[in-house]
Amino acid sequence: MKRLLMPVLAASLLAACSPTYNWRDYSSQDAPFRAMFPDKPDVHKRKIDINGLPVEMTMTAVDIDGTTFAVGSAVAPDADKAKAALDAMKTALVRNIGATITKEKVSAAASAGAAGNSQRASIDIEATGVRNGTPMKLVGHFEARDKRFYQVIVMGKEKAMTPEHVDQFMSSFKLL
Question: DSSP letters of 119-147?
Fold first, then answer.
């Protein structure tokens, strides 16, 4: 009996260890960014209105057990409208889960380079809320570089979001 039980127990343990997170490097074909996604991301484009600014947004996203890892990117007519889009995206996502922002950091910079003047702005947030009776969490990075803007988010059930996975995704986002 013992000889039969050990292989069955070992097989069940191995099956339970199947990797849910299969991290892979992703380079966007539409926007100059790279990120590590926890699985092969889907890419969708759609026209949206961001507080009166119509844009075509490209969303690159993965859902792992109800937690969404996503990068959205779009181009505004000018740098000021791209910067204004950051706050509008942040507000819409926070409202989506009925959240309250618990941490927020805002930064802006302008620099001169070989290609001319460059404007950058970013907002980093953490927010918690409740959607359909379930505690939710949102970690977001919203960035504008000249006319292009990005939203980088992890959003899902608060208890299912591990700090290690959130940090891995958020810190992997790089503009090229």
Answer: EEEEEEEEEEEEETTEEEEEEEEEEEETT
Strand duo 33-37 + 99-113: pairing: unpaired
Query: Cα separations (Å) of 52 from 55, 82, 84, 95, 146?
Result: 10, 12, 11, 17, 19
Cα separation, 61 vs 67, whole angstroms: 10
Go through the chain and tell me how many residues it has. 176
Give the pLDDT confidence of 32-62 residue by residue, as tens digits: 999 999 999 999 999 999 999 999 999 999 9
In a domain, 3, yes or no: no
Question: Considering the domain boundaries, does residue 140 fall inside one?
Answer: yes
Has residue 48 been placed in a domain? yes
CATH for 66: 3.40.1000
* pTM score, whole prediction: 0.84
> Does residue 12 fall inside a structural domain?
no
